[in-house]
Design a protein that fits this description.
By secondary structure, this protein is an alpha/beta fold. The protein has helices spanning 7-14, 19-28, 45-54, 75-88, 103-107, 118-123, 151-157, 162-170, 190-198, 210-230, 248-259, 261-264, 277-283, 296-309, 311-314, and strands spanning 34-35, 41-42, 62-66, 93-97, 133-136, 139-142, 179-183, 201-206, 235-243, 267-273. Strand 5 and strand 6 form a beta hairpin.
Length: 321
């Protein structure tokens, strides 16, 4: 969890800046590098944050939810990987596990039964700060466990406005984070409705198969209804996941999406390719960037992170020494 960027990785992220140029820039900015046992130098998260801010970069303030009415499409694995990588860039992240199965919580190797979860915050007025687990200096987690299976019952019975519930719960802590990432269950329910209303951006991971396409249609229909009836102000993006260009099925569904002008406007300019290393990393409770071997999904998550953080666009304005 505590992996840090190397100057080489920062050079690639900034684009057009040589590794030597990055080292010189870090030195002039008095950034303290850490030397690992292997002799490689790495940039601590908060030092990198200070460096980027001094260079004119502004971290986005976004609430992002991953959701689709279909299980097994990669919501949890992508939200986990994105949260980790964004934190490596110095972004302050809160991950909120809304799924009663708690798979995201287990990905962080957390035994959630020891901690209060969202149900306790809503039903028993537990201070939300007491339910947050610190993972690293730039990454926190609000965990989930099976107790959250009663969330929908509680939300049906509550006198609170469900459409504003999550956003209001976050008010005491929201200023402490750049990104709040909701990992939602694969359902149409009250907690997903509240997460949608609290989100600035909804990312819909889509696998190239007919069941995922059906899930996409149901999800888009529900989001359209939420926008119309409650005036929720979120954007949505479709993220192609587990894509294999060698398979006809993937190419077929890609073509089908592109033909739909409305959906085409919302397809993310990043594709997550098929790669087992992401599952392996989660199984080992590690960030994929802790794995030594190269992988295409590592490259894709990197690009997704740079896209979400806006570094891809900002780097053209990088203030050079």
């Amino acid at each position: 969890m505590h992996i840090m960027l190397t100057p080489v990785e920062l050079s690639k992220a900034l684009g057009g800046i040589t590794v030597n140029g990055v080292y010189k820039s870090l030195e002039r900015a008095n950034i303290n590098l850490i030397k690992t046992k292997t002799g490689r130098k790495r940039i601590p998260h908060l030092e990198l944050r200070k460096f980027l801010i001094n260079k004119g970069y502004k971290y986005p303030k976004l609430n992002i939810s991953f959701q689709i009415v279909k299980g097994g499409v990669g919501k949890t694995s992508i939200s986990y990987a994105l949260a980790n990588r964004a934190s490596h860039y110095g972004a302050k992240i809160l991950v909120v596990d809304l799924d009663q199965q708690g798979n995201l919580t287990r990905s962080f190797d957390i035994e959630a039964r020891k901690y209060p979860v969202l149900l306790d915050v809503i039903r028993d007025n537990v201070d939300i700060k007491k339910s947050i687990i610190n993972i690293s200096d730039t990454l926190d987690l609000l965990p989930s466990n099976l107790n959250n299976s009663r969330l929908d019952v509680e939300l049906i019975q509550t006198t609170n406005n469900v459409s504003t519930l999550l956003r209001k719960l976050l008010i005491p802590i929201r200023d402490s984070y750049d990104l709040v990432i909701f990992d939602c269950p694969p359902a149409i329910n009250k907690i997903n409705f509240s997460a949608s209303c609290a989100s600035d951006l909804i990312i819909i991971p889509l696998n190239p198969d007919p069941y995922s396409i059906d899930g996409l249609e149901l999800t888009l229909s529900e989001l359209k209804k939420i926008k119309k009836e409650f005036g929720a102000n979120f954007d949505y993006k479709i993220l192609l996941n587990r894509y294999d260009g060698r398979e006809r099925l993937g190419a077929y569904y890609m073509r089908d999406l592109i033909k739909d002008e409305e959906k085409l406007k919302h397809i993310m300019p990043v594709v997550i390719r098929v790669d087992t290393s992401l599952k392996n990393a989660i199984f080992e409770a590690k960030s994929i960037f802790e794995l030594k071997q190269k992988s295409v999904v590592k490259e894709d998550i990197e690009q997704l992170t740079l896209e979400i953080l806006g570094i891809n666009k900002w780097r053209n304005n990088f203030i050079r020494d």
